[in-house]
Amino acid sequence: MPRNTLAALALLALSTAVNASQAAAVQTDASQPDAPQAALASAAESTTAASDFTLTANVTLASQYRYRGLMQSNNRPAIQGGVDLVHASGFYLGNWNSSISWLGDSNSAVSAPIEMDFYGGYKGELAPGVPVDLGVLQYYYPGDYPSGYASPDTTELYAGIGYGPVTFKYSIALTNLFGFADSKYSQYLDLGANFDTGLWGLTLNAHVGRQIVRNVDNGSYTDWKLGVTRDMGQGLAVSLAYLDTNADRAVYTNTHGRYLGRATALLSLTKTF
């Protein structure tokens, strides 16, 4: 065969092999065209799922701890804090804690220096501008108690509704209320309002509540509060309030002789993360 013909055949064979190799490579790549896109889509879905949840934490230093108008820390400073996990759908879980002394103040044999609250529920809108809040709250008081001591642990269901600056919340105890005997189904009615002044980050706070304690003579009472909160920025807020009650002294006086429902001023500093 002539040399020119051999050379031509060799070039043709080489060209065919190269083209076949390139075609195979293209086919191989085409067999997984969505691999990077699939990975990105999976990562995006994971990020979206994670972003559906919001986790916040808070810590408060208070001149004292009052709950429903009653002294919880024997007029001494309290440290408080909690965490909240909220889903975009409106469902939430949370925990809040505070130093206390009221249990030990009522019985020297009791050592229970902390209150731990666990709650969960749903927040949404009944109509535009009408928020609702439904949930359950467990008050837990770990500590050492003498034999036969009535447990202060309490479980409540609550339902709240708001309109503009005004809110109303109804709570009902599914257990005895904070250790009161035969007080199951006691109730608390809470009417509050927060008015943004539009000046210097100031919000005016007002509250009136009615604690109804079942089967406890003179156990029911009314409490109220007037205060102001200033938003300092960076998640920092300072509050000053005046609180008072008409709680019966015979029922709500501790072993130190201190009336738990007396009028007081309360100063607090809160940081939210």
Automatic annotation (TrEMBL):
Cross-referenced InterPro entries: CHP02001
Pfam families per the UniProt record, alphabetical: Gcw_chp
Domain of life: Bacteria
Keywords from the UniProt entry: Signal
Secretion signal, residue range per the UniProt entry: 1-20
NCBIfam families tied to this protein: gcw_chp
Protein name (database record): Uncharacterized protein
